[in-house]
Structure prediction request, 142 residues.
Amino acid sequence: MRGAMTQALSKADYEALAAFRHALRCFLDFSGEAAKEAGLTPQQHQALLAIKGFPGRDRVTIGELAEQLVQRHHSTVGLVDRLEALGLVRRESDPADGRRALVGLTDRAEQALAGLSAIHRAELRRLRPSLAALLEQLGAEG
Prediction:
């Protein structure tokens, strides 16, 4: 890693990095607006997606969700409380460890997430050529 950090960057490298970060910001802005139109905050949308997209399971622990959201456990508890109050998630006791709660999506959340995910996939497909070109440019040895 250190070698990559000390290697001189060209003007083209800086331009590609700036363009890539701009593209990411544009996608995140798109995503935030789409979530708002669906009646969710971007953080709520991300939580629903993290639960639905968790590998191999339909329910997650608060700790697993916190890790996926890159936030503290107590912040995730508050988020899950708000999602539960909105009828978007339900908490159940973990049959393997009654001290833990498992969080899963309600049918209402499944429907909202399906619509949001479809438009996000379409937007990413639209952006794919330009993002791929930027990643290729950043990966090229110069």
User: Anything to note?
Assistant: The chain has one domain: 12-139. Strands lie at 59-61, 89-94, 97-105. The first helix runs from residue 2 to 6.
